[in-house]
Design goal:
CATH topology of the largest domain: Rossmann fold
Radius of gyration: 27 Å
Structural class: alpha/beta
Shape: elongated
Order of helices and strands: EHHEHEHEHHEHEHEHHHEHHHH
Strand content: 5-15%
Distance between the termini: 27 Å
Mean pLDDT: 88
Number of domains: 2
Number of strands: 8
Length: 359
């Protein structure tokens, strides 16, 4: 599932008739940013230029209708804050302000008012920030260089800043935000399996599954050992052979430990049982359409399910072919955090509050 990224640029409608070419120039900057955001592998919804309060409301409705996960607000030139705030009052997605200068410096000997307006991005940042604070709108700011690869013909200064560290750093930060927003979306639609119960006495593992649904949107499928047993009964010799080959490929099977009498080389019978249970786990994951599975089971000695859980470890340490985590012998909170970080990659900014949300 791809994330949905919103983008718009801001300016002042009065400028367009006063300074020929300025609107078109800023639109080119906007399209350049769209191209950069598209390069991060998500869906980009670019409204274009917002230059008055009416356009702001249109943009807010546009982003809301497309259910974007994050909105990038590009400070193209000066704009009144009244032409910005309505966007974010209508669309509640997290907001990142792009305060990106086109060039390293202004060519003062040749600069006109229209030329200067194409470089005065930062001048509106304090006004918009103040308005956001007073309106209770959360936001973050990325400052740096735009990173164009060539200078526009209309410009009188050098704008090729693609390799400048200020541009590289800014776009790396933007990518992290995009990845984080996409991770939030995929987690909101994720299906987590909760098999068995939690380990008695480990209070940090206990989770309120209703709170998980309420605060993350993720679905928790509560499973019983008989669900897994049903899958075990349908495992074929071909399934077992595939898992047995995967064990040899994924693990290094060591011999007996020279120091620990409990650490013995697994027998072929034990490996075959682990492969059988792993095949059952994968069937359960696929049939229930699970993105991840957390488990623990403790039963009386000799219990059929106790024997079944003894083979869980193969499935716990190797992902299935679709890249999903099949099992993990931890509490649900750990499973959710692990899946959050896996999906976010380097983009973890929006996920830093996962810990306290699940407590």
């Amino acid at each position: 599932m791809k994330g949905k990224v919103g983008l718009y640029s801001v300016g002042l409608k009065t400028y367009w008739a006063q300074f020929p070419g300025l609107e078109q120039r800023l639109a080119e900057y906007n399209r350049f940013i769209e191209k950069k955001l598209n390069g991060f592998g998500q869906e980009v919804y670019n409204f274009g230029m917002v230059d008055d309060p009416d356009k702001a409301r249109e943009a807010g409705e546009y982003f809301k209708q497309n259910d974007v996960d994050i909105v990038f607000l590009h400070l193209a030139t000066y704009a009144t804050s009244a032409a910005v705030v309505p966007v974010h009052q209508i669309c509640k997605a997290p907001t990142v302000i792009l305060n990106l200068q086109p060039g390293l410096r202004v060519n003062y000997e040749k600069t006109t008012t229209g030329e200067w307006l194409a470089h005065c991005n930062a001048c509106v940042a304090p006004e918009i920030s103040n308005a956001f604070h007073r309106c209770g709108i959360s936001y973050r700011v990325i400052s740096g260089l735009l990173g164009l690869e060539k200078t526009p013909k209309i410009s009188v200064t050098e704008e090729n800043t693609a390799k400048r560290p200020e541009a590289v750093r800014a776009w790396k930060e933007a990518e992290e935000w995009v990845r984080a927003a996409a991770a939030v979306r995929t987690l909101r639609y994720a299906r987590f399996g909760f098999l068995g119960n939690t380990y008695s006495g480990m209070l940090d593992l206990y989770s309120d599954l209703t709170m998980v649904h309420a605060q993350t949107g993720a679905h928790v499928e509560v499973l019983e050992m008989c669900d897994l047993k049903s899958c075990l009964d349908r495992v074929t010799p071909e399934d077992i052979a595939r898992e047995r080959e995967e064990i040899d490929r994924f693990f290094v099977i060591s011999g007996d430990s020279p120091s620990d009498p409990l650490a013995k080389k697994p027998t072929e019978e034990q490996l075959a049982w682990s492969a059988t249970v792993a095949a059952a786990q994968k069937k359960l994951v696929n049939e229930r359409r699970l993105d991840a599975l957390t488990y623990y089971y403790h039963g009386a000695d000799g219990n059929e399910y106790e024997q079944l859980q003894s083979g869980f470890y193969r499935g716990a340490f190797a992902p299935d072919g679709a890249g999903r985590s099949v099992c993990r012998r931890r509490g649900f909170e750990d499973r959710y955090r692990h899946e959050s970080m896996r999906r976010a990659g380097r983009g973890r900014k929006l996920l830093r509050d996962c810990d306290h949300r699940l407590r």
